[in-house]
Amino acid sequence: MTSLREVRASVSVQEPEALRASALDLLVTRRQQPPSAAIITTTVDSAPPGRVTDDPSLKSTWAHRAWVACGCASVLATLAKSGIAAAAAAHGDATWVECLLAGGLGYLAADLGSGVYHWAIDNYGDAGTPFFGPQIEAFQGHHRWPWTITRREFANNLQALARATAFLLLPVDLLPGEPGLHAFAGTFLGCLMFSQQFHAWSHGTKSRLPPAVVALQDAGLLVPRAMHMAHHRPPYNNNYCIVSGVWNRLLDEANVFEALEMLVFFRFGVRPRCWSEPTLEWTEEVDDRLPS
Question: Minimal CA–CA distance to 216: which of 248, 185, 245?
């Protein structure tokens, strides 16, 4: 069987037909790496933050707090509109069930959406990419200094997603009361907005996290720490979902992202970053000179 490394190394020299054959062979094989649920006991938060604790870029500003407040208000308004419409519906019980199912689907869709977006940002574009450039640069920096996310203040961490959530929910809130639609939209965007906080918690040490957060991680309702730590180990091409991580095993074992990478390469000739050996930007930097 042709390995992923062999296919990646030969993409620049193989003839198109030979490359397609190698790619097809690859997509029917399982990746040679630990499964999504592999237990990794060391967390990157064990690296001392040192000098970054006073970095002003990690602090929240009043503008950040205002955007997070707007995002939270938008989510609550959308969910409240769903509840009010359900209470006023002629078939109340059935409508409440519809809202719960729609909310559950929103929760699952948010995890999947976070994984697809995370994969795309990790592998394509650079700091100069229009609109997404700052996010791409930030994600690359996160791979080099992953422990800094635990030192980033709450509003600073969520403000970009909160701003997007507020704008995206505005037209939804202007629609007539549709209980299922509003339950889905509120849960979906609410989970995406808070995904960066779930992400930050997945980098924390168990002893420093609130017991309720640890319980939710252990139950699989929030992305578990061990699962996300696997994403920060070579080859950096798995466990992309950061809401609950419920999709990670399926996506990784089915080679979904590898198939998408092949599709992008064949169609546009663009190689994802995970096909190359990790560069300095992707290698975790730990300052061992500072006390823990």
Answer: 245
Distance CA 86, CA 45 (A): 44
pTM (two decimals): 0.79
Contacts of the segment 118-123: beta carbons below 8 A, 24+ positions apart: 118/240, 118/241, 118/242, 119/240, 119/257, 119/260, 122/236, 122/240, 122/273, 122/274, 123/261, 123/272, 123/273, 123/274
DSSP classification of residue 147: G
C-alpha dihedral, 131 to 137 to 139 to 143, nearest 10°: 170
- Check residue 10 and report its DSSP letter: H
Tokens 């790619």, residue located: 23
Question: Maximum CA pair distance of the chain?
Answer: 67
Q: Which of 38-47, 152-161, 229-238 has the lowest mean pLDDT?
A: 38-47
What is the separation of C-alpha 251 from the centre of its chain, rounded to a whole number of angstroms? 13
What single-letter DSSP state applies at residue 269?
-
Helix axes 92-123, 133-144, angle to 10 degrees: 80
